[in-house]
Specification:
- This protein is 80% helix and 0% strand.
- It has eight helices and no strands.
- The protein is globular, with a radius of gyration of 17 Å.
- InterPro entries: LeuE-type (IPR001123).
Length: 205
């Protein structure tokens, strides 16, 4: 995979990971309720769940592209619509949402269990990855290239949420996030809508 193409993949994965939602709320809740270790545990196990969906998507996309090109196109458009909906939702979120979770006592074991359930219990991740990976997967792509795509999704998702958990260990970070949540939501919303439009425009390979 060319470096420029991988950088595009990494940037899109980062936008997906940073978008406000239940995953961010999960990491915030466990970090505030148990400290750095439960927060990092939630981040890592959530990333593993994301990687599972990314793997399913990568393995299935090539076959769908070859055998059912019209169906693949419809799925891709549905994925683009979902990305646009996420963007609109982020734009309308304002100051609330995932940046104001209720702190409850938690443990690393609870964090790991909930993180996997949140990731695997969210089938919308499949739609997200279809919209995302349709830009990078081709029928003739090698297993190594597919492995790189899956690993990128896991590392970026886990890395971002680990940074969130570590950052929230410092008392000054959360108040800053709460004060500026509307800007984070707005920027994320614009980027997601732009990504949806790029998906509709066609592959970037």
């Amino acid at each position: 995979m060319p470096l420029t193409l991988w950088l595009s993949l990494a940037a899109i994965c980062a936008m997906g990971a940073m978008s406000p939602g239940p995953s961010l709320a999960l990491v915030l809740r466990h970090t505030l309720g148990g400290g750095r270790v439960p927060g990092m545990t939630a981040a890592i196990f959530h990333a593993l769940g994301v990687g599972f969906y990314a793997l399913l998507t990568v393995l299935g996309l090539g076959a769908v592209m070859v055998r059912f090109p019209e169906l693949f196109q419809v799925i891709t458009w549905c994925g683009a619509a979902y990305l646009a909906w996420l963007g609109i939702k982020a734009l309308r979120a304002g100051r609330g949402g995932a940046f104001t979770p209720g702190a409850v006592m938690t443990t690393p074991r609870q964090a790991a269990k909930e993180a996997v359930l949140v990731a695997l219990g969210n089938p919308k991740l499949i739609i997200f990855f279809v919209a995302l990976l349709s830009q990078f997967v081709t029928p003739e792509m090698s297993l190594l290239a597919k492995a790189i795509i899956v690993a990128t999704a896991i590392i970026i998702d886990g890395g971002w949420y680990v940074l969130v958990a570590v950052g929230l260990s410092h008392s000054r970070v959360l108040p800053w996030l709460q004060r500026n949540a509307h800007w984070v939501n707005r920027i994320t919303g614009v980027l997601l809508i732009a990504l949806a439009l790029r998906v509709v425009a066609g592959p970037i390979i």
